[in-house]
Amino acid sequence: MAKWGEKSEQWIVNDLGKDGSNVNGWHWQEQNKLPWSKQRIDELVKGLSTQLDASIGSAEVDGVKDVTGEAYLTRRKKDKVFAVYDLNIVLHWSGQWVEDDKKVAGEITIKEFSSIDPDEYLYEVSVEKEEDAPTAAANLKLAVRGLEKEILSQLQKYVQELNSL
Q1: How many angstroms separate the CA atoms of 99 and 30, rounded?
Q2: Angle 128-118-126 from CA coordinates, rounded to 5°
Q3: What is the crossing angle of helices 148-164 and 34-45, to 10°?
Q4: InterPro entries this protein is in (predicted)?
Q5: Most exposed residue of 14, 49, 59, 134, measured as fewest CB within 10 angstroms of its CB?
């Protein structure tokens, strides 16, 4: 072992650049993928719509309102890649109930969507100003709840894409 202030060749890491950079990707690297995640999730879920008869009503996902949490791509020695994410996703939806001729909007909240336990998430649907159109709100809320499988299918596409970056 070298004495304090002396350099010993055995302790110098040669694969680091002169500036200490991670040459050849040998050491751990983390890339923040939260901005990419927000954009990609928005692209995947925007336009998903309920399977209602058009004469009854319709509702669709307008896009992402907010994505919080973390999404990282971690690399070790260039070839070992791990996607780590723990997200809270808020989507905006809107619809119209023909019988009442009322427009309704709300949010879909997906909490704790994570790489640690992907099946343990919370899926909630809320309606803005529910008291203004109670029948339309109740019916469209139920219809939007039915989008859970489609939304999760799109989120699985997101996970596959994140893992392949």
Answers
A1: 52
A2: 5
A3: 140
A4: Aha1, AHSA1-like_N
A5: 14
- pLDDT band at residue 16, thresholds of 50, 70 and 90? low
- Cβ pair 52, 143 in contact under 8 A: yes
- pTM equals 0.83
DSSP symbols for 67-126: EEEEEEEEEETTTEEEEEEEEEEEEEEEEEETTTTEEEEEEEEEEEEESS-TT--EEEEE
Both tokens of residue 109?
Answer: 């909240």
- Characterize 135-144 residue by residue with b for buried, 16 or more Cβ atoms within 10 angstroms of its Cβ, and e for exposed: ebbebbbebb
Inter-residue contact 73 to 31 (CB < 8 Å): yes
pLDDT per position as a tens digit, 19-29: 556 566 567 78
